[in-house]
Amino acid sequence: MKKKFSDKFSGKVGARYEITNSLGTADSPTNIIESQKHQRIERNYNNFLPYLSFNYAINDKNNISYSFSSRMRRPSFWELNPIRNYITEFNYTQNNPFVKASSTYNQELTYMYKNSYFLILNHSYFKDQITQVPLQGFIKSADGKIGTQNVLRYIRTNFGDKQEMSAMVGIQKNFFKQYLTLNFNAGVQHNINNGSLAEDPTTGDTFVDKDGKPLVYTNTVKSTSIVITSNNTIRLDKKKTWFLGVNYFFIDKQQIELGMLKNLMSLDLSIKKNWNDWTFALNVNDVLRTNIVEIEDYQPNGNYNYIRNDQYRRGMTLSITYNFGNQKIKKVRDIESASDDIKNRTR
After folding, report:
1. How far apart are CA 72 and CA 79, in angstroms?
2. N or C: which end of the chain has fewer CB within 10 A?
3. What phi and psi, each to the nearest 5 degrees, are found at residue 346?
4. What angle do CA 279, 280, 281 make, to 5 degrees?
């Protein structure tokens, strides 16, 4: 429901009621988990997801808005399919047929000045977060037997709750007669983690140290980090045919579910040429080769875990595009679309 209370104040209120009925089967005779062969994976649940937003135009230059939203994150069937991916004989990842849907509740307060300068305050709450959790130690089975080999299992499961809070300031504006289009924001993010896991939910196994003391994976660490993003376009000629793109982001180290994520950074460059109905573009990603995921975790019980995920994101792509159709009509549509966008942002 949408309502305009006055020329300056308007709001929206709504809700969704989602019904989920899903059924999957793990029928592979080669499934390595004997107890889960020919298993039915059935999920039936309902969710009420509210939404509301308010917008207040203080005057022609100042605008403030607030929104609250909620959504569900349902596990994919590949996450539910109980298979193992072995890294070594005693180190593997494990999917979990018992993973349930997680919920996210998000609040955002935005202040905008002259449609160019902004301040955004955000709070997100994640309930039953879906992630992989490392369980490490000597296996203690349900019958009390303790294994002789130290193992490491990455189990996909619901791992407690998490909160993220951030405060960002930024600018989106054209300079130098539209030769430079700047979109820059920077701020701080605060993470609060609250989860623990002592038992492998797929087998019922627990983990102990060499002295038989129970081992529990916990993450109640808080962190505060800096976040910077900048997406810029530079027009290189008067005819608006050559453009240079310079995009950059930096995320300071922060605590996530698996441990401390080390800082991430990436510089991407692009150059584009418009020629009649043709567009030629060259993109170079991760120029400095800094977009590499590294996670380090120290547990109070002495366990240590280190993950390095290097997907070699540095690369180059060349694209050539030809625009079919009547370009005059297209330009009219683009102008109308831009006008509608401006009206929506200034209401």
Report:
1. 16
2. N
3. -105, 0
4. 120
**In angstroms, rounded to a whole number, what is the distance separating the alpha carbons of residues 228 and 107?**
21
Q: Which residues of 272-310 are buried (b: 16+ CB within 10 A; e: fewer)?
A: bebeeeebebebebbeeeebbebbebebeeebebeeeee
- Measured CA to CA, the distance from residue 100 to residue 192 in angstroms comes to 22
Alpha carbon distance 123, 345 (integer Å): 22
pLDDT tens sequence across 114-173: 999 999 999 999 999 999 999 999 999 988 899 999 999 999 999 999 999 999 999 999
Domain count, the chain: 1
Predicted model pTM: 0.82
CA-based nearest residue to 58, from 2, 110, 135, 136: 110
Q: Which domain holds residue 279?
A: 2-346
Compute the distance between CA of residue 334 and CA of residue 323 in angstroms, rounded to an integer.
14
